[in-house]
Amino acid sequence: MKSYLIQNELTDTERDPLKAYPELLQHLLFHRGIKDAGQADIFLNPHYENHVHDPYLMKDMEKAVDRILLAIEKKEKMIVYTDYDADGIPAGVIFHDFFKKIGYANFENYFPHRYEEGYGLNIPAIERFKQEGATLIVTADCGIADVMPVKRANELGLDVIITDHHLSQEVIPAAYAILDPKQPGCDYPDNMLCGSGVVFKLIQGILKKNTFGMKAGMEKWFLDMVGLATMADMVPLKGENRVFAYYGLAVLRKSPRLGLMKLLRKIKVNQQHLSEDDIGFMLVPRINAASRMGLPIEAFQLLTASNDIDADKMSTYLNKINDERKAMAASIVKEVKKMLKERGQDSSDPSEKKKILVIGNPDWRPPLLGPVANTIMEAYKVPVFLWGRADGEVIKGSCRSDGSINLVEIMQAAAPGVFLG
User: For FRET with 344, which of 51, 245, 275, 328 sits at 20 to 30 Å CA-CA?
Assistant: First the structure.
């Protein structure tokens, strides 16, 4: 049975600054931290020109922009290294579309394999980039924790620009430039951007120095990917994120992306009436299915398809593997619940229930375990660790908590050598 927290009714003092709005809206606004008419107007009426911040308020923006402009001028080979989820893949699409738009061709979009390479930069890939003539790596939605890979890149003479939105660790990579509004010393007004949001700020920064002949405001067409990623990553829809989600949804409803249009038709979603629920429950799972069941670049190919044949092929494929993913995940959920029942987790006696669940099966595919762990956590209300191996040698998995317990601290308390990396 689910439990719900009912917020307190507003007092007359709390209600007065919002009196221009209906009572229910007053309540909803107040409990989202919006407590006066000025904040409410910004929240309810997002405005691109008025509510988007100067990109150069972000630490290292100048350095990052100048280095990329130099690479474009000298036609250096650039690697755009992005995460494999529904934040990282749209970020890669933004870079791809921008570089194509300005006529810069010497770049490669690279997405690490979720299972074989794992999250973030990895040294074998960096060494391969060097052999292939690359001089600059730009990350998206990853990199802030990759101290050793960046060190190796520096040793090889490769510059690394990190764009990320995750919390930094105690040691920060010695990258050429780091764009991350959460990093120490960054005073950017909104530190809750998603990875694609940070990439969009970089594109804005580049265009402020060199428009490359693009008409003013043309970058707004990239907001379909920013909005998709912002809603996919479930960042707070306040401040700049709200602008990106609002305008992103508007662009998505009229986006000319062939793959997107084909996929929406296949899943019977009216593009002109696309909603945030359609994005969260229909589009995002199919984008994430690419890395969970196949290769992340397949979702990238869908979103960058330039002809009907490729668009139709990729939309059919992603729809198919998403159905397979759901079936496999449902089977694992059923198996986990059976195992927990046998272990007494369904017992009415609290003494028989575990406070942390750790379950695994060598046959389970690690990329599928994140959503499964979330389902089990919601069902049993305790932290969950699931592991699998499939055809790999190393046990990998996913963990979930409702936020009341820090899973990183739990893992750090384990004996040395239990966890790799």
Answer: 328
